[in-house]
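INFO batch 0412 | record 1 of 1 | parsing
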Amino acid sequence: MSFSDQPAGAAGVVTVSQLLRSVRMTLESRFALAWVRGEVSNLSRAPSGHVYFTLKDGGAQADCVMFRSRAAAFDGELHDGAQVEARALVTLYEPRGRFQLSVEAVRRAGLGPLYERFLRLKEKLEREGLFAAQAKRPLPAFPRTIGVVTSPAAAALRDVLATLARRNPAVRVIVYPVPVQGEGAARRIAAMLARASERAECDVLLLVRGGGSLEDLWSFNEEAVARAIRASRLPVVAGVGHETDFTIADFAADARAPTPTAAASLACPSAGELVLQLSRHAQSVSREMRRRLDYAAQAVDGYARRLQHPAERLRAHLGLVAQLGARLGFALAHHLHACEAKLGRLRAALGGLDPQAVLARGYSITYRASGEVLRDAAQARDGERVRTTLARGALESEVRKRET
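INFO prediction complete | emitting tokens
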């Protein structure tokens, strides 16, 4: 940002605030995060949790601030007289017009190459997928035997054993002794992890040691240890150092705990918690059983209401038969009445076609001797004998004359 970007008074005059803001932004954009080496002095911790100190060497000094969110993680590294390397942003505190370094992380001076080695190995193994979440094995919910890979003389072992005994004394513990620092320690740790995996005596392994410097914890930053953790057939919980310490073993492990004690707590469920869970499950089962019994009782009540004495069922069936008989009698009577009515109609219709009825009205039928009905006078021959049927009786006659 240039001064021309700021509102100015007459003749391009800027305010102090505008000037210092421009300087701060120039510094922050010009200098990237960098590691700065020096000696800590004038260290003070504010009630807010922020830490203020001076970083100096033989020829110069710079004011530094580390804000609360980061200061807690590096408390052990900061004290007057400590030679440190600080990862800092070059900036300006505008209200005082004071140059300062905003520190994000610190490490003891001289550890730079070791730390860079740590970062290179971490990046390499991460690219290989050694730390992938999908490769992590789940921890057993109810381990019966827990293995502890650590030094028998370490305070971490005592903390782990005390925690396991307190949480669940029924859990069996097997200690796999190894040195946790010094020459050859990483190789022996890797070999012991392989042996424990091969023997398969445990449900889960704890790889633990107490806190220390980066050099003290370096055995847990070796590639052999990381690969042995991933090659193990047993899930591995890493509890190395303090909460702020991170090692390659932490990233390779199936679970990471901030301390050895936390690793024991993570791997071993509390007997009290298990009893509480069992009690809750028992209550849940009891409630479910009561609910099912209540439902069954309601069903029995329903069946009882539907259940009848055989005599009642017989009376009901007899009543039903009587109803069916009455309905059948009514249906038959109705059907007979309908048939009689239809028969009357047919009888009347037939009556109208009955020859006798026609004759009763004064008509007659004349037959030839052959039985043929005479319908036309021209059919008869003179002198032919014919028979005439009347309503009552019949006449025989001879044809004397025909009128056509």
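INFO post-check: The two ends are 145 Å apart (CA to CA).
INFO record closed
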